[in-house]
Every structure is written in structure tokens, then in C-alpha cells.
Amino acid sequence: MPDAEPQGVGVVPLQGFPEVQPGDSLADLIRTALVDSHYVLEPGDVLVVSSKVVSKALALVETTARDDVVARESVRVVATRRTPRGTASIVESAAGPVMAAAGVDASNTAPGTVLTLPHDADEVARQLRRDLRALGLALHAVVISDTAGRAWRTGQTDFALGAAGLVVVDDLRGTTDTFGQQLEVTERAVADEIAAAADLVKGKASDTPVALVRGLSAFVTEDDGPGARSLVRTASDWFRHGHVEAVRLALGVAADAVEAPSVTPEALAHKANRALQVALVGHDSVQADVTGRTDWVSISLRGSDFELGAVSERLLAALWAEDLAGQVEGDLTAPEGALVVRVEARA
């Protein structure tokens, strides 16, 4: 925790950046932009640099098909959905954070190419900080920022992908609030807050990939610090998989063994059929038929009593993952060894 709270924070863009090319020195470009913007770097300033220009300078440009690049840059898949533009995946990226498409970006790059993220953005930030200090600039911190969505929130915001010379978390646990009560869980993600603030003045379409944040010298350190990767949750991750993927894995079905759900509306019968495919994995002896209307579906199951019991329970779980509700009903007109599951949209 810093010795004193900041009294005010200012965020300004560094304008006039050229199109960054592979091999360009970001330190030289930043120094030039500081001069052109009539700013002098002061001790305790924070420079926030878009990951896009970092990737371009490091020549992290790919001409391979985007889906293949995403697969290569993914450590594990969290959730996959079908969209009108193709398959969208939320993954744990090789760069560290869980994010869409592993951070592979096709915007602001030549047609037919995509940009990937550096696998060690903290080291990139440390090297850029060393390069800037070598140019005689004052003690400062560097944040490499990227953009991501957030669970339960609409829209995207920038976060710290890499950091050097910065207290990335202001740990307030053990201190007291204004009522004298001890804080037990409060850890302020300073690096992410700085990245998000800088995004308000940076712009993808305005050649402004770097912002200067002033007034946070209490968080700037002589040493490089733990870096932004320390902000990535691992062992304490409560949301390791999307709910569809979690149910499938719990049923012993690979998350990608059955078609992924779509983000667009789907017919009830189509969703019920997909849940049935999940339920039948490993139970090939059970026969099934799906009939119904637009507002309800009936799934008839035939097989041995044991197999029917297993498949019906698996089906109820798979239906829940599809936002459907199933009710197992006895079919008095069917021969022995048959069950009917009535399916409706879950209220």
C-alpha cells in the first residue's frame, strides 16, 4: 500500500505515432511522441502502451488462418459458441489471461494477417522500461494494455497485460475503513485501473497507442515488481469452464465432442437434440426419438432399465445446460423398457 493516496490523476494521449513496423524501437517512438506532444516525462509517471503496437514491433504477425492461430495460442478452452461470423472461443491464452480468441486480433493490421500477443508481456514491459531509461528519461512505470470483455458486464475495457515498475495490486487487507472495521478482502487492481483509464484517451482509429498517466508516483517503484501476470487467477478460479462445457465434462463428454450452442436463437427441438447427443455418449444401446412442437418436445427412450435410468439423468443435466427443463414421464402405452422425457424452455 502506498504511503499516501494520490491527490489527483491526469491522463493524456501521446499523439502523432506512425504506423509501427517490425523491428521498430518503441522507446525511440515514445520519446519522439513525448517531444511532439510537448510533454516531459516526470518521475513517477506511468506510460501505458497498447499491446497492438508491441505485437507489430515484435513482428508477431501471422498469415495463417485465424482459427488455427487461435488454437495454437490457446492453453485451454473455457467456452465455445457458434456465431453468424463463425466460432467464438473464450480461452486461457498463452499470454496468460482468459480472453476471447486468445487475444488474436485482426483489426488495424493488413488484410489476411492477424496479430498475436507476446507470451511474456511483463518482460516486454521491463525491456521497454530499460530502453526508455537508457535514453535518459525519468523513473517511470510501463503498462502494456489489451482489451477484453468481462463476465456479467456488457462491453469491453482495457486491462494490464504486462507491467514493470508498478505496484500492480494495492492490498488493503488488514487496514480499516472509515468506521474502523477491518478490511478482509479488498485488493485494488491498480494496474488494470490504470490501463482502463488510459484507454479513455487512446484510440484504435486515431494513431494514439500510448497514454501518459500522471499523479500515481506512490505506486511507481525502482524495481520492476511482480508484473501483471501476478493478477491472473489460477488455483482460486471459480469459473474454469462455461456452464455448457462444465456439464459436458462432468458427464464425461469432451467439450467439443458435440456441436457448440449458438449465440443466436435456436429451435427448441434443435437444442433438445443436442442435449440428447450428450446424454447418449457411452450409451449406444439406448434408442431415442424426438417429436414435438415449437413450445415443447417429447424424447422417447428405449433400452434396459439401467441404461434408461442413466441416460434420463444425463439428459436432464444436459437439458439444463441448454436452458431447457425436462420432466421424466412414464409412458403407459409403450412396451416395458421405455421412458418419455417432456422438454420445455426453462422458466
Concise account of the structure shown:
The chain has eight helices and 16 strands. The protein has helices spanning 26-36, 51-57, 66-72, 121-134, 190-199, 243-250, 268-280, 305-321, and strands spanning 10-14, 45-50, 61-62, 74-83, 86-93, 98-100, 114-115, 140-150, 153-164, 170-171, 187-188, 210-214, 287-292, 297-302, 324-329, 338-345. A hairpin with a 4-residue loop joins β13 and β14.
Walkthrough of the structure:
The structure is a single chain. The chain has 347 residues and is α+β, with helices and mostly antiparallel strands. The chain is 25% helix and 27% strand. The strands form five sheets. It has a five-stranded mixed sheet. A four-stranded antiparallel sheet has the order 13-14-16-15, covered by helices on one side. Helix 1 (26-36) packs across helix 4 (121-134) and helix 7 packs across helix 8. The two termini are 47 Å apart. 36% of the residues are buried. The model has no long low-confidence stretch (mean pLDDT 90).
